[in-house]
């Protein structure tokens, strides 16, 4: 009986420690999730702010055609 009583005590201690550890781990997971959401929202707002400027710059580079002879071109005689 004493052994059984001791085993129950130890089991209860273990479960309480396990709950405490898992509880803190759950909070950590929630904090990481929240930080990730904030970072994603920041990236999305940055993308929205800079979208037009980047598109204009990209279209300017693509549409600005300057015909010229390549420096390595050799005229065949």
TrEMBL record:
One GO CC term, this protein: synaptic vesicle membrane
Compositional bias segments (type: Basic and acidic residues): 1-14
Compositionally biased region (Polar residues): 15-28, 37-48
Keyword set includes 4Fe-4S: no
Stored Pfam families: V-ATPase_G
Keyword annotations of the record: Hydrogen ion transport, Ion transport, Transport
Subunit relationships: V-ATPase is a heteromultimeric enzyme made up of two complexes: the ATP-hydrolytic V1 complex and the proton translocation V0 complex. The V1 complex consists of three catalytic AB heterodimers that form a heterohexamer, three peripheral stalks each consisting of EG heterodimers, one central rotor including subunits D and F, and the regulatory subunits C and H. The proton translocation complex V0 consists of the proton transport subunit a, a ring of proteolipid subunits c9c'', rotary subunit d, subunits e and f, and the accessory subunits ATP6AP1/Ac45 and ATP6AP2/PRR.
Family, as annotated: Belongs to the V-ATPase G subunit family.
Identification of the protein by name: V-type proton ATPase subunit G
Organism: Panthera pardus (Leopard)
């Amino acid at each position: 009986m004493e052994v059984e009583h001791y085993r129950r005590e130890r089991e209860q201690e273990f479960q309480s420690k396990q709950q405490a550890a898992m509880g803190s781990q759950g909070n950590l997971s929630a904090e990481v999730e929240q930080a990730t959401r904030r970072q994603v929202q920041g990236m999305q707002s940055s993308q929205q702010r800079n979208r037009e400027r980047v598109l204009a710059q990209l279209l300017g580079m693509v549409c600005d055609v300057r015909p010229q002879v390549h420096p390595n071109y050799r005229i065949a005689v």
